[in-house]
Write a structure and sequence with these properties.
Blueprint lengths: L3 H17 L5 H18 L44 H6 L16 H6 L9 H20 L4 H16 L12 H9 L15 H12 L2 H49 L1 H4 L3 H72 L5 H16 L15 H12 L5 H20 L10 H14 L2 H18 L14 H12 L5 H26 L8
Helix pairs in contact: 1-2, 6-9, 7-11, 8-11, 9-11, 11-12, 15-16
């Protein structure tokens, strides 16, 4: 039974001998093959145990006699070998004088034959064929991994040409008329219809933001970032391909060097120190190239991710701007419609003009009686006039009756039942209502109201300066609201200035409210 360690050593030795058997020197090749067969039969090796990837020529496995004892290769003068009685280890590591009758003594090695192959003209036909096939195989393997510089230049030019074709994405985020109609139907202003729409604080602030927003500049930035993102992606792909190409070259060189080292191991032992120094220098050079490629790829990836993040941020801001723009327009239209509905109840010319305005607004914005809140219709006559106008447009009698029945039922139930919750609420008025309820409620309820207030203020960009501080009657609610907004200011100087200004306004409002509550002094005569 052969041990695993001994079998591994035997396999390594057989691989070296089989690689040596591919030599163009016929006597050296025969001796290496005979020695390999001897080692194979001594250690009971099988063909599948020999790693074919480590062989220079796989055909040498078929030249080995695997079933019979090693063949006897006859030479011109084969000396009679004395019987050796000493151990294998003693013979392996002992130094003996050079025997001139041995084939390795005073004869050319594989390296000498390889260097003088072009000078020798008298070789046999088999030697020329073997040596020629080895050179052709080495040349083919070396040419397989040469980079195609012409093709890479064409790819770069193609990518540069494609980068000039910038896609016009000016209408990428603009909604169509149907989407705006759906948004318009769900928009209801919660302000007072009798007050002009331009005096609403919140929508005035939104109008200022919309006026200051430069849509053309944002669109040009988006186009520029999209182009830079595309160029960065192409640069990343080029750097990655370059890195893969260098790794393939390195892998090819490694395999070639490993094969050369395995096939010429006996000759390389004479100059092992020089080979080791050369190999270390090559490893250092290849490591530097590999690390340089990895750094370039990492930098390209970081730039690409930064551009993607900027593009996504600007896109979200632009979408928020479009949404606020549509909400502002819908709120303005619905405010005007509710105002005209309230004025249409009046008698005389003013009522008729308001009713015509209601008809025009509903026709221009594709609104019907289903889209209105019946609580805004203060008169039954006004409702009947609107209903008759819409039912006159329905040709089918059954559909007209069903529509009339539905509208009447909805009108009657809206006057009796509780008004449905509006879909869109003015956030500033909602915040003031929550502050007023928090001032008169318990600590737990006040905390819930303050959480809703913080969420509405952060999501809609509302400051404590925009809120009517007169609705806050509890000092603890005011202090918590002031501290929450002051903590978001990084600069200590700006935070102190902001806190002082809000405190002055609140104290002034408290003093005015206290003076208003005092009873008037009686006049004395």
């Amino acid at each position: 039974m052969v041990s695993i360690r001994r079998k591994k050593k035997a396999i390594s030795k057989v691989v070296k001998l089989l690689n040596l058997a591919t030599s163009s020197n016929s006597s050296e090749s025969k001796m290496a093959l005979r020695h390999a067969e001897s080692v194979i039969h001594q250690n009971a090796l099988k063909k599948y145990e020999i790693p074919q990837s480590m062989l220079c020529d796989v055909n040498t496995l078929f030249r080995v006699n695997w079933s019979l004892p090693s063949r006897a290769f006859s030479t011109e003068s084969e000396p009679q070998k004395p019987k050796v009685t000493e151990s294998f280890s003693t013979r392996r590591f002992s130094e003996k004088p050079v025997d001139t009758n041995r084939s390795y003594a005073n004869s050319k090695t594989i390296l000498d034959d390889y260097c003088e192959a072009n000078e020798s003209k008298d070789k046999g036909v088999d030697d020329k064929a073997t040596f020629g096939s080895d050179l052709n195989a080495t040349a083919d393997r070396s040419t397989d991994f040469k980079p195609n510089t012409k093709k890479s230049q064409e790819n770069v030019s193609t990518m540069n040409y494609a980068a000039d074709n910038v896609i016009n994405a000016a209408n990428a985020f603009r909604p169509d008329a149907v989407a705006f109609t759906d948004r318009l139907r769900g928009q209801y202003a919660s302000s007072n219809p009798d007050m002009p729409f331009e005096e609403d604080k919140y929508w005035n602030k939104i109008y200022t933001q919309l006026a200051d927003f430069n849509e053309a500049d944002v669109q040009s930035k988006l186009d520029a970032l999209a182009l830079q993102q595309k160029l960065a992606e192409e640069s990343l792909k080029e750097k990655r391909n370059e890195r893969l190409l260098t790794e393939q070259e390195e892998q090819a060189e490694r395999s070639e060097r490993a094969k050369i080292e395995r096939s010429f191991e006996e000759a390389i032992e004479k100059a092992f120190q020089l080979r080791a120094q050369s190999y270390e220098a090559w490893e250092k050079r290849r490591s530097d190239i590999r690390m340089h490629c990895l750094r370039e790829e990492r930098d390209a990836l970081a730039g690409f991710e930064e551009l993607v993040e900027d593009y996504n941020k600007i896109t979200s801001d632009y979408q928020r701007h479009i949404q606020l723009k549509e909400e502002y327009r819908a709120a303005k239209i619905m405010h005007e419609l509710r105002k005209q509905l309230s004025n249409a109840v009046k008698q005389g010319e003013e009522g008729r003009t308001s009713f015509d305005s209601v008809i025009d607004i509903m026709a221009s914005n594709d609104l019907s009686l289903r889209d209105l809140e019946f609580s805004d219709i203060k008169s039954k006559s006004l409702f009947i006039k609107l209903l008759e106008r819409e039912t006159a447009k329905i040709d089918d009698i059954d559909a007209r009756e069903n529509y009339t029945d539905d509208m009447l039922t909805k009108f009657l139930t809206s006057t009796v039942g509780v008004k449905a919750q509006q879909k869109v609420v003015n956030p500033l008025l909602k915040i003031e209502e929550l502050l007023a309820s928090a001032s008169v409620s318990s600590q737990f309820e006040a905390q819930k109201s303050l959480d809703q207030i913080f969420h509405l203020m952060s999501s809609n960009g509302i400051s404590i300066k925009d809120v009517n501080l007169a609705v806050i009657s509890k000092y603890s609610v005011f202090v918590r609201l002031l501290n929450w907004e002051a903590e978001q200011i990084v600069s200590i100087t700006e935070r102190e200035r902001f806190t002082a200004g809000v405190l002055e306004n609140y104290v002034a409002l408290s003093i005015d409210a206290g003076d208003a509550k005092k009873p008037a002094a009686k006049k004395t005569v």
